[in-house]
Design goal:
By secondary structure, the chain is of the alpha/beta class. It has 3 domains: 107 residues, no CATH class; 164 residues, Rossmann fold (3-Layer(aba) Sandwich), CATH 3.40.50.300; 74 residues, Beta-grasp domain (Ubiquitin-like (UB roll)). A hairpin with an 8-residue loop joins β14 and β15. It is globular.
């Protein structure tokens, strides 16, 4: 055991043995901050010694979805069912030894699905090429976390590894703004009532060498959320939990797992059979979770192309549409006409900052 490992274990033990109350909150906050720093330092050393981390995966399509879970939960079967990609399927562990990509075509969107090698307990520490797997997840737009219907405890085990890797499924980034200064100490302001005391906040900030700064907090956060805000290397990704192999389970067992899921699973979850079930509900959820919006282009004087929509993210505007069509179109843009929910009237003339809605029809007029 290295010196860093020993220090990590000592701090963990001290946190567990220290009762949390008004007199200890500042001390515990500093311990948690120190623990996060040590884990980050250990991860960087491991990455350097291991020659880097991460599978080389070229992103393609309108978004990338990563299938993650323990070995033999059915990720390869699901990839094949969704995309027709040829990912090896077998009943023994560690079948997939590299990242297998496929493309799901749904409602005009081309969605890249990645079947990554199964994670195991200790993945975030590098076991079973865990760091490489988790690095792929950090670059995804959506996580599909699969568990076996006969091993629902995989959810808690796997989610621990994902969180330890700095991934925060279905969370927004902490609403904290930290502006460092050369002098003046720490000025802490909040727009909401906080459970954390200012002493706790200052203790955590000081552990990271932040002693002069303006800090504005706009949510009632925990010590862990404050540490996440300071670390600024967390990844916030939507996620969905899939309980697979339901075709092999009896009704009583399914009811027990349903109760477990309702009590333990924080994310949206869906019961599926990757091998035999109807996967259309899953496709709909993937589309919704990715916040996709379809926009149909209408050339001037012609009918709109309803077969090949442009896929944009929710909240996109005409400028985003121009950039999606061609990188030089925005420079030649004059105005656009819009039909649909975002328009005040059919064929409304709008500029680049006009916000679009799903299934709008757009004609773009440009300089010749």
């Amino acid at each position: 055991m290295t010196s860093i490992d020993k220090e990590i274990e000592e701090i963990k033990r001290e946190i567990e043995e220290t009762p949390y109350n008004k007199s200890t909150e500042k001390h515990i906050g500093r311990l948690k901050a120190r623990l996060a720093k040590l884990k980050e330092e250990k991860a960087k050393k491991a990455k350097k010694q291991g020659g880097g981390e991460g599978y080389a995966v070229e992103k393609s399509g309108d978004a990338t979805v990563a299938l993650v879970g323990f070995p033999s939960v059915g990720k390869s079967t699901l990839l094949n069912s969704l995309t027709g990609a040829e990912s090896e399927v077998a009943d023994y562990e560690f079948t997939t030894l590299e990242v297998i990509p496929g493309t799901l075509k749904y409602k005009g969107a081309n969605i890249q699905i990645l079947d990554v090698p199964g994670i195991i307990s200790g993945a975030s520490k590098g076991k079973g090429r865990g760091r490489e797997v988790l690095s792929v997840l950090r670059n995804a737009d959506l996580l599909l976390f699969m568990i076996d219907v006969f091993k629902p405890e995989q959810y808690e085990e796997g989610m621990k590894e994902i969180i330890r890797a700095g991934i925060r499924p279905n969370q927004d980034p902490p609403d904290v703004n930290i502006q460092r200064r050369d002098r003046g100490g720490l000025q802490i302001n909040s727009t909401v009532n906080l459970d954390l005391s200012k002493d706790e906040i200052k203790s955590i900030l000081n552990e990271y060498g932040i002693i002069n700064a303006d800090v504005v907090i706009r949510e009632n956060l925990s010590q862990e959320r404050l540490i996440d805000a300071i670390m600024d290397n967390r990844v916030y990704i939507p996620g969905l939990v899939l309980v697979n192999k339901i075709d092999t389970a009896e009704e009583k067992h399914l009811k027990d797992v349903q109760r477990y899921a309702e009590e333990k699973i924080d994310e949206d979850f869906l019961f599926i059979s990757a091998a035999e079930g109807d996967l259309d509900p899953l496709k709909q959820l993937i589309f919704r979770k990715l916040d996709f919006m379809r926009v149909y282009l209408k050339p001037k004087g012609e009918e709109a192309d309803k077969e090949e929509p442009m896929i944009l993210g929710e909240g996109a505007d005409i400028g985003d549409l121009c950039r999606k069509i061609h990188r030089n179109l925005e420079d030649k843009f004059r105005y656009a006409r819009v039909w649909g929910d975002s328009a005040k009237h059919p064929g409304q003339q709008v500029g680049k900052d006009h916000k679009l809605s799903d299934e709008d029809v757009v004609t773009i007029i440009k300089d010749m």
